[in-house]
Batch of 2 targets.
Target 1
Amino acid sequence: MRPNSLIELDRDHLIHPVISWKGHEARGATVLQSAKGATLTDAEGHTLLDGFSGLWCVNVGYGHESIVEVAAEQMRRLPYATGYFHFSSEPAIRLAARLAELAPGDLNHVYFTLGGSDAVDSAVRFIRYYYNVTGRPTKKHMIALERGYHGSSTIGAGLTAIQSFHDGFDAPTQLQHHIPSPYPYRNPAGDSAEAVIAASVAALKAKVEELGADNVAAFFAEPIQGSGGVIVPPDGWLKAMRDTARELDILFVADEVITGFGRTGPLFGVEHDGVVPDLMTTAKGLTSGYSPMGAVLMSDRIYRAIADGAPAGKPIGHGFTYSAHPVSAAVGLEVLRLYTEGGILENGRRAGARFAAGLARLADHPLVGDVRVRGLLAGVELVTNKAKRTKPSPDLGLSGHLARFGYKNGVIFRAFADDIVGFAPPLCCTDEDIDTLLARFEQTLNDVLDVADVRAALA
Ligand code: PLP
């Protein structure tokens, strides 16, 4: 089918996530057609280096035949097996066991979902259930971080602190609260690790005191905030927050939907600080986007308390038709094999070091205020005055310029609110991919700088 007819059909029938529907009608879709390694090709034959791994999910890169083979084989043998009641399937069992083996500490129990939003939603429901069956039913309030993203389910969107996920949706924020994000570049008390950690610890304690410890259930945090602008907390922050949560008698939930599966170097983001959360939510890199799947990992203690505390003989009523889907589980097992035995994690670490060095060189660019990188997760914050760290005026429309010039230069990244550019290239990137990505991004920045209004704003 010609691209134009596809674009018309898309405009008439396909509702897209996280976009102005009217804006999309006016612009039309970019139809992606095929991919290999780190390169995408659109329906017009334009090739794009994918600096964002789809939506920070295709960690192993595109075109792995071994994944296609295990999916096809599983579809032939057993395309579906319910996880309900006492039914199970071999790939789901093996994937749960492998995750328990790879995850830190005693996160030994795995509940499979279809993605990240329902993993967060499931975590909230299990936490509520846990406190109800262990005799502490007043513990209902959840605390998360400003600029945090925890999906767009009804509950998760309340934990998410990005305004467009609340506005107009009546997000249930009565039981969900936010404290400032650990954002060194814009921390009012300075960017030292001590100042950032002290501010977060004090904010969590103050919020729990305000709500009453008997009413607070959990603290949710991404080890590195993704959609909020790739905010990288200092070393030691996760451990301080984990310890504070324990001291306050609230659960600590690490949302590893982006940071899991090698994105930041180690398999999980919490490993940077050697932290073991009470629950962990994952998705994306679990199957590298080849098939939808997420997972909640639960500690021995929480699992046991729920199993023993639930009313005898009554079902624990939480489940999805596609929980523990055998095809996704088979894909997940092969993806995990590629990370650990196929050299992908190791390659990701090497590529991450090269990417970090290249981005550091761009710190001198007139538009670049801050560069933050962990592994292959990076944020580049643009400013119009480096010394004063001035956020660009929305009137400059930088994100539109970035998207337009990025496409012209053949590179995909994401421009978040406050003109922060996010990168999450596939872990399979070669040195050449990384160098090309950096060169195309630099060209894009130069093109943006050449826009008359932008140059005038910097003068
Ligand atoms: N949690 C985090 C940290 C995420 O970044 C996302 C998605 O980007 C989600 C949850 C929601 O995941 P999904 O889009 O798979 O529902």
Note: The chain has a mean pLDDT of 96.
Target 2
Amino acid sequence: MSDNFTLLGPSASEAAGRSDILYLALVGFSTLIAGIFLGVIIWFCFRYRRNSPADRSNAPSHGGGLEAAWTIAPLLVFLGLFAWAAKYYAEMYRPPADATPVFVVGRQWMWKIEHGNGRREINELHVPIDTPVKLVMASQDVIHSFFVPAFRQKQDVVPGRYSILWFKANKEGVYHLLCAEYCGTDHASMIGRVMVMQPQDYARWLEEGTSQPGMAQRGFTLFREHGCAGCHSTGSTVHAPLLAGLLGRSVHLEDGSILVADETYVHDSIVEPQKQMVAGYAPIMPSFKGQLSEEDIMAIIEYIRASGDPHTEKQQP
Ligand code: CUA
């Protein structure tokens, strides 16, 4: 048994520890309350069995205090558990702003992973320890589910939209990566490994794979090749939003709502530009659905991220 083995299996992320305590508390309270009720039922069965000498006259009324107590006490316990779980869920739902993005594309039947500097891997994910990592995931075909039991993290990966999952690994080691959604003949072999490494080892590992251009560089090439710069640039005569510094910025939409631009927003704006129109712009952008692969779109997002602050717009990251 390794030192990271807990009652619920290997645990290698901050969330795993929190999730386990919550899970055990839920099971513990449920067992306790069910046990009390079971005990009382069994006791009544014996006490009031047929022909027993127990007093069967109508009990005097206690004004309902006892009934109120046994109703309200479990209610408070479970509302408390709900609040605890909701807080955990809300924190897991929102990745920290400084999380390192890693891109994942699921397909029948493998996980394709790309790191910001262009290092790619298949069915393996290398991550640094004690660092928030945000996975931006898309599917190329059917629904898959990215599951790392040691992180207590599972997230469906759905075609046509992004799924975000973030974690902070806290134990070095090698952990299972599974597909947890039946996705066809070889679903069972859609498995891999997650390697949690020291930050300096991770940095060295990243550098070993820098023969290809980085994602931002590839994104810049695509940005030019597909004519994006024709409208989205300072010199353009077409009135289109400038994209430098877009990620993390508030965007005012035509319907009056405001959203914070994230990877999902950029992705949707490329494949379905008319869906969320930016206030003050004409709906002239064509959809690039089918022209760009999920990996291409991810590269363009990295180009936009690398192009940084809108006031110091660079042509090349
Ligand atoms: Cu992919 Cu199951």
Note: Residues 112 and 122 are 5 Å apart (CA to CA).
